[in-house]
Amino acid sequence: MNNIDRRGFLVRTGLALSAAVLTEACSRTFASQQAPQRRFTRWEDLRAQFLLSPRLIHLATFFLASHPTPVREAIARHRAGLDADPIGYWFEHEEKQEAMVLRAAADYLNADPTDIALTDSTTMGLGLLYGGLQLRTGQEILTTVHDHYSTETALRLRAERTDAVVRQISLYRSLKTVSREEIVDSLRKGITPATRLVAVTWVHSSTGLKLPIHEMALAIQAINRSRDERDRIIFCVDGLHGMGVEDFSVSELGCDFLVAGTHKWMFGPRGTGLVWGHPKAWPITQATIPTFSGQAYELWMENKSSQALPPSVHMTPGGFHSFEHRWALDEAFIFHQAIGKSKVTQRIYELNQQLKQGLAAMRHVTLHTPMSQDLSAGIVCFEVAGIEPRAVVEKLRQRGIVGSVTPYATKYVRLAPSLINSPKEIETTLEAIGTLRIT
Question: Which domains does the chain have, with CATH numbers?
Answer without folding.
Answer: 113-319 (3.40.640.10), 341-434 (3.90.1150.10)
